[in-house]
């Protein structure tokens, strides 16, 4: 191997190292020292995060506004689609996922979760006029809709043994980039049911009761929380202190009632899988 080739490879390795360093999530000390914090929120996850008349709305956006008032540093926000959001946090592109991320066993391997902001047990939603679906057992063989890369896709794995107990099985599963697309296909009959978190399921059925009906839980109790990269403990502690203070003074529960329709005062302070 020539010295020129070695030099080229060395420079390439150095470039990759510099890229990796630049992408590393900021620590709390770096954030306070002037680097600031970059958070990522989803663009279409009502009632947690959504855009209405060009304005960001939802529980997470109100919590972010409160965090900005109290934080002694700049907080930059990126409103992006769900796809790639968690990967962006785990690789350091964003310092925190300020969105309702469902805590799962797989996700805790690369992310650290703050204190939950809501319950996230998954339910099924069917068409209001579909009399063939009256319970979880009736989902056997039906076509399901889930969000690609989301917790609803993982929820199907929990549904499988439930259906097997009654001799049923999971049918075709169709993955969507966002839930609005899934509900459009549910309304048109392309899929038979949508699996989603309890809050979003209640929201869509309350908004359109003549089109959709709320079914039963298809998973064990679960929770949604903000997330930072694994090992960014000081930042996690800072965010936890903020959220737990909002629990203590009742602010979080009031915002839950406003945006989610109910409060979850029995949520654990921490959740590990």
Automatic annotation (TrEMBL):
SUPFAM superfamilies membership: Periplasmic binding protein-like II
Keyword Signal attributed: yes
Segments forming domain Solute-binding protein family 3/N-terminal: 36-263
Keywords on record: Signal
Domain of life, per lineage: Bacteria
Signal peptide coordinates: 1-25
Cross-referenced InterPro entries: Solute-binding_3/MltF_N (IPR001638)
Entry protein name: Amino acid ABC transporter
